[in-house]
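Q: Sequence in, structure out?
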Amino acid sequence: MNNLTMVTGFLLMGFSNTSELQVLYAMLFLMMYLVVLMMNLLIFTLISFDEYLNSPMYFFLKSLSFLDLCFISTTLPKSITNFLCHSRSIPFMGCILQYFLVIFFAESELSILTIMSYDRYGAICQPLHYEVIMTRGTCVKMATVSWLSGGLLGALYSGSTFTLPFCGSKEINQFFCDVPSLLRLSCSDIHIGVDVTLSIGITFGILCFTSIAISYGHIFSTVLKIPATEDQSKTFSTCMPHLIVLIVFITTGVILYLKPRQESYSVLHLLLSIFYTVVPPTLNPVMYSLRNNDIKTSLMKLIAGKHFSQGLTLRPFP
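A: Exactly. Output:
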């Protein structure tokens, strides 16, 4: 208890103590950030202003692109700034905010991906009832619930973690504030609030995974009954990008946050963290744009200067 002091800030992990390497890392992170920023902004803009991209699938894809923008903007800009300023510090309140936003956007993205799997189930397995089920009002409510669930879990995690006492080292073995790294710095071995919140988060993740598995089980069963091979291929090409994004996002998250806590620094842990925070936001627009003819057509119209001839107005759902 003698070592217990008021914590005013933390030190994020530095990739290197060499100034030249820090600048190199900053440039690499900046390039990745700008690529993700431009690709997701492009997807968001195309869907927002193209009158033909107004189906529920594109509504949720637009929401996913916005979440990806927010998610990666929570971690990379701070790391880039620290690299360029040769600093590793983050204020206590800044760490709380970053911690909350990472969980908020990650959980919201998982919810949106789960909703998108249900949307694909409705479009493929219930085509006659699809327009009745997936109305604009229903889509807006689903998106709102996904944001609220992410905000609730973020608030629970932040409240339960930052009420713990911190003492000793202030060094976080991570390039952003996350759950396992902060728990290592806590003086207390008892953190019931965090354990309860973690149980809620795991239960939420299991429910999402179960829903996704059921949706795709029905989808694959329906697609395999289609007699035409060409139609099967077209349907699979629509679903596979979403499935790949899901697998990458869920697998890296599970490995990163559910593996046993370690006291020592792990290069694998760092690589998984970068993979988890950078790859999904990069992969989403690539997978959906390169394999989606509607997005390609909309992009070609934009390049040809024909895209905004309708007056830049959002069109309602059919």
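The first strand starts at residue 9 and ends at 12.
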